[in-house]
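Handoff note, outgoing to incoming analyst
You'll be picking up this chain. Sequence as last confirmed:
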Amino acid sequence: MRIREGMSESVLTIGPSHTLRNAAEAMCRRNVGAAVVLDPDAPGPSVITERDILQAVGCGEDPDTELVSDHVTSNVTLASPDWSLERAAATMVRGRFRHLVVYDGPELAGILSMRDIVRCWTQDGATSEVPAPAGT
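Most recent structure output, in case you need it:
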């Protein structure tokens, strides 16, 4: 099974100048755990997750004044819709993150979460073996 079959094509995107509260409210309305942050001044997309917001608030930051740009993950792994779900899962585990931003060429195509992978596997079953970690 490929990423394109499990990803969400409806991606919540926000700007870097939104507050953490703006991001949290948008994520709640859409019932998603992450938003892709598009900054025209950045070399690529970044991501803000519910975990990023929780950590900021838990450390005493004010969600009404803190900007998304100060709490994003900017070193984002981009995936192709043609990747297998097994490759996506292995990449997420290795990188210790739960969302992959999916680009089809230069276009934002979707987002894939670990939950999406589990949903696909429990509905349809995995189609191949999970690759062994490098060096084993």
